[in-house]
Specification:
- The complex is a heterodimer.
- By secondary structure, chain A is of the alpha+beta class.
- Chain A has three domains: about 70 residues, no CATH class; about 325 residues, Orthogonal Bundle (Cytochrome-c3 Hydrogenase, chain B), CATH 1.10.645.10; about 30 residues, no CATH class.
- Chain A has 18 helices and twelve strands.
- In chain A, the strands form five sheets. In chain A, strands 3-4-5 form a three-stranded antiparallel sheet.
- Chain A is globular and about 85 Å long.
- The N terminus of chain A is likely disordered.
- Chain B is of the alpha/beta class.
- Chain B has a single domain, classed as 2-Layer Sandwich (Beta Polymerase, domain 2), CATH 3.30.460.
- In chain B, α5 links the parallel β6 and β7.
- The longest helix of chain B has 14 residues.
- Chain B is elongated and about 70 Å long.
- The relative contact order of chain B is 0.12.
- The N terminus of chain B is likely disordered.
- Chains A and B meet through α4, α9, β10, β11 and β12 of A and α1, β3 and α5 of B.
- Chain A: It is an enzyme of class 7 (translocase).
- Chain A: It is a peripheral membrane protein.
- Chain A: Keywords: Cell membrane, Membrane, NAD, Oxidoreductase, Quinone, Translocase, Transport.
- Chain A: This is NADH-quinone oxidoreductase subunit D.
- Chain A: Pfam families: Complex1_49kDa.
Chain lengths: ~450, ~300
Amino acid sequence: MTDIRDDSPAPAEERITTEGPVYTVTGGDWDTLIDAEHDDRIVINMGPQHPSTHGVLRLVLELEGETVQQARSVIGYLHTGIEKNCEYRNWTQGVTFVTRMDYLAPIFNETAYCLGVEKLLGVEAPRRAQVARVMLMELTRIGSHLVCLATGGMELGALTGMTAGFREREEVLHLLEFLTGLRMNHAYVRPGGLAQDFPEGWAEKVTDFVKVMRSRLPDYDKLLTGQPIWRQRLENVGYLPLDGCLALGATGPILRSAGLPWDQRKVEPYCGYEEYDFEVPTATEADCYARYRLRVAEMHESLKIIEQAVAKMEPGPVMVADRKIAWPAQLTIGSDGMGNSLEHVRKIMGQSMESLIHHFKLVTEGFAVPAGQVYSAVESPRGELGYHLVSDGGTRPLRVHVRDPSFVNLQTMPAMSEGGMVADVIAAVASIDPVMGGVDR
Amino acid sequence: MSDSGERKTTDGRPAAPSDDTPGTEGTSKESAERTGGPHSSAQESGADAAETGMGPGRGGEVEQTTDQDGTAPEGGTRTAPAARDRQGMFGVRGSGDTSGFGGLRLPGYAPAPAERPYGGWFDEFADEFAEALLERGIPRGAVEQVTVDRGEITFYVQREHIVEMCRTLRDDPALRYELCSSVSGVDYGADVDRRLHVVYHLLSMTFRRRIRLEVVLDVDDAHVPSIVEVYPTADWHERETWDMFGVIFDGHPALTRILMPDDWEGHPQRKDYPLGGIPVEYKGAEIPPPDERRAYS
């Protein structure tokens, strides 16, 4: 039996089984691939289904030997049309959509969106809600950075980093579940405040969490920071100096690793960040190792902010008093789970027709937002997360545009990896920390 | 963004006493209907257009200044897009839609031009900006309108000058807009004149100021020069805007689709992009697409 595959550089071996022929395809020798007619450049597709590409990111690499000559990223595999979907839901429902964009930092999406809506409305969330938002955002920042370290470690072969990172992230998710009701996709921050107040005993839980993280974060220094292999894989890899960052629009740890202490929390404080005492860690090496160290340092700073937020939290409302905006139902836990409080149901069903109408109108139709446009930005774990919201005066957004830091930062991938080794592409992408849910939206 | 709250509803006559103070009643249903009322100049011009003969084209007829010598008002003369005719059941007009058949979209709106003083750092910045433009020989009419709303300043600019304007904003030592935060599109609706807007958010890290540039486009001539040569970060933003809105950025190094598949037809975030209904198994019935469902707002 002649095998037509014989003329290929690396013939596939054939084996006859009861299920039919089975071919074993193996890689060929590099020398058999190149000959006089072809130069020694090959183009390979890395992804979209590749464990080292951080989700469904596809990299097209032109290689010369092991050197990357050109690199391009292809995105869109996780495009879900969230921005368009928001235009056909009311402003409150938008929260449940935007929280699914950057799924590692859902609270940031919610907060940036709600800050934008509140700016359009001209209202400000009550203080307790602001403090709670800060606390939740910093918790999420820790969780997001842990995933960055975990997946980055896994991609570079540091599997213990992965298991340790996900173990600690589990602590974050457990706490977020306790505080907001869900591990991810919380929809907890709402225009005007929060969906509801924290459950009883939250302060102890948060304090315990801080204690646990304080004891565990130093392990990362032992495990990774000083480890020779980790350093060799990251140091002087993925270099992007400050002018490159600004030209390519990179923000967040990438920008700060190039020496510019640019942090929205400091330069354009929102949610009362100006009251908190924390540092913005920076480095000047502008390489992957600097970004790694910044992320670890930022987690320590986040713990400081969380502690201060717990101390700052005073009793009070978590939603604006305006009944035209605030969700009418007071949620409570009943015997069959969480739902509208029985007291509220009794009132709207038995006593007040107007309350019933109001409840119905506000829930089905939403509140109208005066016409205009705003841009609201927060410092997400990956950089400047900006929401451009346009209202035509109705109860639905005319446009929700998200300036997602992952999307913008991913543009720096070619600048970081061209001319380097193919193995360093992985390190560079891991240090950009793109979340494809945010890139593709 | 420093001084929100200083909202200028200047429309050539004294702004109505702040009955649009948000938070008190600005979000109520009544107010939603009143946004078409006379206290909002933006809405007003739309409403006027509706009353005085609805034809499309009415709105965009009076266009930007052809001013080269600085005689036109600085605020600009860009007019509101023509309003859409909203109609309830039984031929009721002009009473606000209570039947829900009017569809989702409200009449198009255009923000009112701002008047001096703008407040905050805006005045100083506008002076510096005008001076820098003059130095580089960009006509003053290149800025069609200035709007200050909710503590943010927006410059509506002519597309011919967008690249040079961005270069000026980036390079002039008094301006220093080092970072282009985002470029995106907005579609104001199928029956609005010059419905496509390209929105640029620029950030000066030196002065910690943000501004917004906006280019207004006709949907049949959706071309705008690419600013990639000034801000390389605009590359993907412009590709996304092309992908989603069909705005062609002339001079872009590789204007291809980015989020949708390469062979996709149409531009999904345009308002007239068909959303598709859902067929149900009952006598050929279909759940209508969301933009054709009844809506009461």
